[in-house]
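Table S5 (text form). Sequence records supplied for joint modeling of the two-component complex.
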Amino acid sequence: GENVEQHPSTLSVQEGDSAVIKCTYSDSASNYFPWYKQELGKRPQLIIDIRSNVGEKKDQRIAVTLNKTAKHFSLHITETQPEDSAVYFCAGGYDYKLSFGAGTTVTVRA
Amino acid sequence: DVKVTQSSRYLVKRTGEKVFLECVQDMDHENMFWYRQDPGLGLRLIYFSYDVKMKEKGDIPEGYSVSREKKERFSLILESASTNQTSMYLCASSTSQGVGYGYTFGSGTRLTVV
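The corresponding structure-token record, covering 224 residues in total, follows.
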């Protein structure tokens, strides 16, 4: 099955700086890569996703890049704000089954 | 507009008890999933179902079973609860229609087995 690894496990950034989270996957058949944000005490929520026929996707301050040859994808958050503090999970898979990374705890320092 | 509802937010059960965790979705999704979330381990798939009465084992099915008698409801059963099953349990659903199959998660059930 698919194995998704996520780094770093924790990330502390100054407000206004950028944050980057990287994930690798093992199954070349995987074609869908979503990112979830989980605020303290709340459910994970989808923030952005990308498909294997797309190299990059952007939504306001959030962008995701995918390198299918190297089997890695990344989340980029620019101009970080205190409300960006959360745990972020990457995931990868095909059909309807996703495998998740272990999560990155992002702390934005004021 | 809660779309995936888990019946309990917090549960405390005794070792050896049979425990039922219920999940209901109102989006007519075909697929439903049970994950457990532990610090440093992320989300690990216990079981999933892609249709009524259908079920498949995930990565950590030992000690668990599931039931899906109706499309909207997916139950996770701990046959004999043990302390190592103390965890946060998340239910999710998704559709196989269209171009996306991003999950919608429930709020989670924090289970403590004593």
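Note: The two ends of chain A are 41 Å apart (CA to CA).
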